[in-house]
Amino acid sequence: MYPSLVQALAVRNIIESKYFKELSSVVVPSHEVGTAEEDSAVAKVEPKCLSWYPERMAWQLNLTRRDIRRVEAYFKLHNFLISETESGKREKRRIVLWLISQLYR
Q1: In which residue ranges of the chain is pLDDT below 70?
Q2: Were 53 and a residue from 48, 58, 63, 80 both cysteine, which residue would form a disulfide, CB within 3.0 to 4.6 Å?
Q3: Which domain holds residue 93?
Q4: Is 74 exposed, middle or buried (0-12, 13-18, 19+ CB in 10 A)?
Q5: What pLDDT is recorded for position 40?
Q6: Domains contained in the chain, number
Q7: 28-29 and 48-49: which strand pairing?
């Protein structure tokens, strides 16, 4: 976790303003968003804020590894999150683990 809430909020703002903004302009055919359908429909993948976690600090994106490799905006966000995790500034957790930690607070 970040040493201070101020730093955490700053990184959250970077993610929302830079990376999520890029995601809003991404249009991907649905067969490239982890589905087996080969039609020309467009599937929009938008970050979903997990409202039960405070300060908009938890988000969910339903992507596959294939999606991340094929769409540059997803790849950039993925690399940013990995660099933040490796530097010890951010924790990667599954939603189930967050729920458990919230229950024990």
Answers
A1: 1-3, 28-44, 89-105
A2: 58
A3: 5-103
A4: buried
A5: 43
A6: 1
A7: unpaired
